[in-house]
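Entry type: protein chain
Record version: 2
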Amino acid sequence: MQVVGGFYRETSLVPEIDQMFGSGGRAAAILSKIANDVTLHTYTDNDSDISEFEKKYSVKVKKYQRDSPIVFSYFHPLSTPHILKSENVQLPIKVNGDVVLRFGFIEGDSVVDADRVVFDPQTWKQKAIYSINGSKANNLAIVLNELELVHSTSANNLIAQAQELLELNKADAIVVKRGVKGCFVLEKNGNKFSIPSYLSNKVTKIGTGDVFSAIFAFYWCVKKELPSLAAELASKHVACFCESGGIDLDLQKLEKLIPINFESFKPVTIFADQTGLGKRYILEEAKYLLLQFGISAQVEDSLGNLADNKKPILILGETFRNPIVIENQLKKNKSKIVVFDTSCDDWFPGNSTPENITLVQDFTSAIYQIAWASAQ
C-alpha cells in the first residue's frame, strides 16, 4: 500500500508535544501495523529524521527534496496551529500503483495514477477535485472535513454538498469527517449513512483525521469493504488512537467501544472563576470551542448555584483554589459533570468519585467529554 503525504514536525505547548509525523507520516505508521509493504512518498529536508522514522515503523520511504522544515505549532491541540513553512513550491511527486492514499501537501503536490485511491485534500483553500492536476483512479473515495466540503461546493446543506462533490469527482464515495459528530458517508448508489463517533476517556486530537483516512483507505482499498463499513471501522480506530495517544492501538477495545448517537446538543453550564487574564482565557477558549461544535454555554462563577443546575456541567477546576468546596456541591448534583484540572487526582480521595462525574486532566479531553455529555 502506498501513501503520499506530508512529513512534518508537530509541537504543542500544553500538553508538551514534539514529534515528527504529519499526515503522510502518521498514516504510514498506522498502516505499517496492519498492512504489508507500506511505502511513504514525501518531501523532506532532513535525511536523519526520515531515516529514523523509516526504521522505527518499518516503512519504505521514497524521498523528494524540499528546501526547509515545516512545523505545525499548537498552543494546545484544539488551537489553530501556527505553520512555519517556506513559500517555495516543490515539483509534484508522481505515484503509480494499485492502492494509494493521497493527502494534500503544503509544499507541493502529487499526481497519482492508481486503481483504488482515497484522496484527503487537507485544505479548504482549494476545491477538493482529485483529477484537477492530472491524477487518475478507477475507483475513488474522497475523505474530507466539513469546512473543506463547504468550500468545494455551492450547495447549502450537507447531503446536497456531498452529492455535488461526488458528481464533480465521479467518485464512488464521499466521506465527511464531522469531529465529535462522527462522519457522514454518501455512496455512489445513493446510500447515505451517519456514522457515530465513539467514546474515549482521553482525546488525543492531533492526527485523528490522518488516522481516520488511513484506516478507511485500508478497509476500502485493500479489504474491499463497503465505504460505510470502512468508515465505521475508521471511526472506531480513531477512538482507540485517542485513548492510546500514540500509534500502538489496543484493537481489543474495538468491539467494546460505546457509540455516541445524537441529533443535537443540549446547552451546558461552565463553572469557572473569571478573575485574572489566565482564568478568563481558559473560560473564553472553552466557550469558543464548544460553540464550534454547536453547543451554547452559560457561565456561572458562583458555586452556590452548582447544586441546582440541571444542565451538563463543565467545571474549570484549575480556576478555583479550593476543590473541597466544589466537591461538596458536586455531590448534591446528579447532572453529567466534567471536571477539568491537571491535578484532579487530588479530587474525591479514596476512589469515591460519583458515577455522574468525570475527572479529566487535559483541556482537549474535557471539551470532548462535555460535548458528548450534552449530546441528546
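Comment: The chain has a mean pLDDT of 92.
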